[in-house]
Amino acid sequence: MIATNRTAGRLFFAVLLASSAGLIAAASWLDGSGAWRHPLIWLATLGQAEALSLLSDAAQVLAGVLAILVTVVAIVLELSATRYTHRVTALFVRDPVNLTVMAFFVVTTTLCIWLAVVLTGEVGSAPLIPRGGFLLAMLMMTGCLLVLLPYFAYVFRFVSPLSVISRIRADALARVLRTRTGSVNKAKHAVIHAVEDIEDVARGAMKNSDRGISMAAVEALATLLADVTNLREKLPDAWFRMDDAVAHDPDFIAMAPIAMEEVARDRSWFESKILRQYLALFSDAVGSARDVASMIAIHTRRLAEKFATQPAFLELCQRTFHSYLRAAINSADLRTAYFVLHQYRVLGESLLARGLRPAVIEVADRICFYGRLASSKGLPFLLEVAAYDLAQLVEAAADDHTLRDTLLEQLLTLDHEGAEPVRGVCRAQMQLATFFLWRGEDEPARRIARKLKVVGGRLLAATRDELEREVSPSYWEINDRGSNFAYLPPERRAKLDVLLAMVSASP
After folding, report:
1. What percent of the chain has pLDDT over 90?
2. How far is CA 386 from the centre of its chain?
3. Which DSSP string corresponds to 138-156?
4. Which of 132, 126, 143, 144 is nearest to 39 (CA)?
5. What whole-number distance in Å separates Cα of residue 194 and Cα of residue 183?
6. In sequence order, what are the beta bridge partners of 474?
7. What angle do CA 228, 361, 383 make, to 5 degrees?
8. 231: nearest Cα among 277, 281, 187
9. pLDDT digits (tens, 9 = 90+) for 399-439
10. Among residues 135, 145, 144, 141, which one has the least CA distance to residue 38?
């Protein structure tokens, strides 16, 4: 994107230059002067007084334009730094385009002033006029004026938050790459500051309801983490050490020694840093910026899937998911917890496809735990969501009988012992039973039937009516999942009578 913007700026400048040359030619033609006169011939007719006047005026004009330019740029930078992050000022000062343009204005103004000094004095019969210098000054002054519009466009693009996020991420990745030849501690400090700056942009954008910018910052953190993780084998050992550069960071300084030892053992301080920033952003987004919270959950799932072969990283992502669920439930944010559960279940299905059975069981265990926790805190719907997600995991593991039975047992024991049956849990169990009956597997269906036996005929009948009544797989309102929990495909709906007969015959 940055390269595209620079190309557009160069093209704009070329158009302005061509337009200016065309206007000069048109003026010459309108004056009836005929052909284009060589600049040296024109300079030969210029007297010392005229040259001095032109250069003095040019120096004043350029000084005024430079003052306006600096003022406008300073105001724009201050607004951007106040609204998003102070890092934009440092990026601006280091940017080669900004330095080049400012330096070009200063050098041109200085040249005009010194040429004017040379021309100052008594006008003799054969005055010494630096005609080459005068021509150079005029060309540079023309360039300064022509570059103004493209440069203003560049500055406004530069300070846009999306551009700032991209530059901070690119700068952090470049620092990481330089650890192979430079100071590792300085690189760590710089990268930690970059991560915190991106998080500041995201938090500031959320406060100003700039959700798109917040999501771009969340994506930048995920991309940076993925890029650095891909480079792990090429980075020096010093990068992974829990030295002072890391241990004194606010995200780690309050850690218990055992937690610090775990991070040091897994060589995962950078991964922990970014996921802790995710958790902080998620906690801020709960209840107020749910789409940002959802985006954080999505990127956490994608990172876990991408690096699922790294056990320490996968475990860290799962712990982060658990923290998301805890934060959403404690804030009574039903919708956010609902979506996070969905992302966690999708992660479980992805891990199942890779044969990572212990990680899948961990996903199912925590879905059960947080479903029960939500129910105990007055959010019983999340228990129903947990039942639905567990049933989906069981269906995905249907061909692995050992894992299937383990997950099925978790679903059958999801309700609190002795508690009143929950209709949504009963519905998920009935749906799963029809799945097994449709596949011709009676044994797991009988296990579910024995569980349903204690539910009671009234609740079973009401649940059956609901399953038969819903004919659309999509929910009738807009939601993040889009699925209708009460929908049962026709081929499985036909098995409801068989299931209820099995329930009646159960001991």
Report:
1. 36
2. 28
3. HHHHHHHHHHHHHHHHHHH
4. 132
5. 17
6. 483
7. 105
8. 187
9. 999 999 999 999 998 886 545 678 889 999 999 999 999 99
10. 135
**How far is residue 289 from each of residues 26, 126, 294, 381, 414, measured CA to CA in Å?**
58, 77, 9, 21, 31
Question: Which of the residue ranges 252-266, 344-358, 410-424 has the most confident prediction, judged by mean pLDDT?
Answer: 344-358
How far, in Å, CA of 169 to CA of 364, rounded?
35
What distance lies between CA 411 and its chain's CA centroid?
Answer: 35
Question: 379: buried, middle or exposed (CB in 10 Å: 19+, 13-18, 0-12)?
Answer: buried
CA atoms of 418 and 422, how far apart (whole Å): 12
> What six digits make up the tokens of 368?
């059960």
Q: Tokens 């404690």 belong to which residue?
A: 330
Specify the amino acid at residue 71: T
- The answer to whether the CB of 298 falls within 8 A of the CB of 343 is yes
Q: For 221-253, b where at least 16 C-beta lie within 10 A, e where not — what string? A: bbebbbebbeebeebeeebbbbeebbeebebbe
Quote the Cα angle for 384-388-389, to 5°: 115
Q: Which two tokens stand for residue 441?
A: 């597997």
> Under DSSP, is residue 483 helix (H, G, I), strand (E, B) or coil?
strand
In the chain, where the domains are located: 2-21+49-118+130-158, 161-282, 286-414, 425-507
pLDDT at 376 over 80: yes
Residue 29 CA to residue 33 CA, distance in Å, equals 6
| Residue tagged 């805190």 (tokens) | 377
Q: Which of 2-11, 149-158, 348-357, 478-487 has the highest average model confidence (pLDDT)?
A: 348-357
